[in-house]
Specification:
33% of the residues lie in helices and 25% in strands. With 391 residues, it is an alpha/beta fold. α4 (86-95) packs parallel to α5 and α8 (189-205) packs across α10.
Length: 391
């Protein structure tokens, strides 16, 4: 079996998720399309890099991403750094002949996103694969919804409603990590989580054509965080700590028009007490509706218009062996999968694309289009008008 040497750049929260995905993929998808080998982990903090090497089982560690890009032994570079570093690392890796899996959003600016998409297009002719890590569209229930839509089960799509609600930054004492700094993140909630449901909306309903909406910042300053590790609201800093300004959005709400004539809405916030990872969608069609809630990620709800009047309503389908990637769902409907299996599905699709030489469904071109929608939302919020998404 072919082996692919993996380099991980950024050993924090998402770095751990990538390692779990690479490690578990062959255990769940066997025979694997190729065998990932954890070769090098890179983090700018030497202690974190060294600890990650031992914890995750990498062969070696470093603190300079150039060492990874210039290493002829490395086949794949996984980028899990803050957003403003994505473009520089990804473009260099692609030009060095490495396949690249980059966390979302694709970049912190539209210009960087475009440069990444162009670099990916140029190197694709040489068999180099790029992928943006939009894992939530790979939930089996979401793939099942896509299958039903493509089969015409619910007819023509009329409306798509999506939400992504979290509460981890609702506490004003949550620290000022890089996710609250425009110079690093590019945007707040919009890039961090709204991008996920923008991707899902376009996956299910086609390209978004126009948007109109608003962006709000509720907590204007936060206590300064010690160190560079993103704590995602799990640690609270004392109220008398030094504070600095927040210059990104806490909440985004916008209406959308799709190119196919459908309409919809997207709402995302990290300030919704009681919501943890509340990713939802409703798709209403001429012949039925589909609903999904990630906090019950093994369930898809379906209502069909042609059911008899006395029994029409939503029924729950539990994903399992008959669903997309059923191999991962432990052979029995309702046995359930979680975030770890989802990352394994993501890595399977990426490694399979590398092994077989085709661009995956969330390649850099797709990531760039999500960024163009985000850019249109920013412009609309500033102008208070409908804005065309750039093609």
């Amino acid at each position: 079996m072919k082996k692919l040497n993996i380099a991980l750049v950024g050993a924090g929260f998402m770095g751990k998720a990538h390692v779990i995905g690479y490690s578990n993929m062959p255990k769940l998808f066997w025979p694997a399309p190729a065998m990932p080998v954890l070769k090098t982990v890179c983090d700018i903090v030497p202690e974190i890099a060294s600890e990650a090497k031992e914890r995750f089982g990498f062969e070696k560690c470093c603190t300079d991403w150039h060492d990874v890009v210039n290493d002829p032994e490395i086949d794949v570079v996984s980028i899990c750094t803050p957003n403003n570093k994505h473009a520089e690392i990804a473009i260099a890796a692609l030009k060095a002949g490495k396949h690249v899996l980059c966390e979302k959003p694709i970049a912190s600016t539209l210009e960087d996103a475009k440069a990444m998409a162009e670099a990916a297009a140029e190197t694709a002719d040489k068999g180099i694969i790029s992928m943006n890590a939009y894992q939530y569209r790979r939930v089996p229930a979401v793939d099942l919804a896509k299958k039903f839509i493509d089969e015409g089960l619910i007819g023509d799509i009329l409306n798509i409603r999506c939400t992504y609600l979290q509460s981890w930054s609702a506490d004003p004492n949550s620290p000022l990590s890089w996710r609250f700094q425009k110079s690093i993140a590019g945007a707040g909630t919009l890039g961090d989580i709204a991008s996920h449901v923008i991707d899902i909306a376009q996956y299910l309903g086609g390209d978004i054509d126009q948007v109109v909406g608003m962006m709000k910042t509720y907590i204007k300053e936060r206590p300064v965080q010690e160190g560079g590790v993103d704590l995602l609201g799990t640690v609270k800093i004392k109220e008398n700590a030094v504070k600095k300004a927040v210059d990104v959005d806490d909440e985004d709400s916008f209406l959308v028009k799709f190119k196919n004539g459908a309409v919809g809405s997207i709402e995302a916030t990290r300030n919704a007490w009681g919501r943890n990872n509340f990713i939802t969608f409703e798709v209403h069609g001429t012949m039925g509706s589909l609903t999904f809630n990630y906090e019950k990620l093994n369930e898809l709800n379906v209502c069909l218009a042609n059911d008899p009047d006395d029994r029409r309503g939503f029924k729950t389908i539990y994903t399992g062996p008959a669903s997309p990637h059923g191999d991962v769902t432990w052979n029995i409907p309702g046995m359930n999968i979680g975030y770890g299996e989802l990352k394994a599905i993501e890595m399977y699709e990426f490694i399979k694309a590398v092994a077989e030489g085709y661009q995956p469904t969330t390649n850099f071109q797709v990531g760039y289009r999500v960024e163009r929608v985000c850019d249109a939302v920013k412009e609309s919020s500033e102008k208070g008008t409908w804005v065309q998404v750039k093609d």
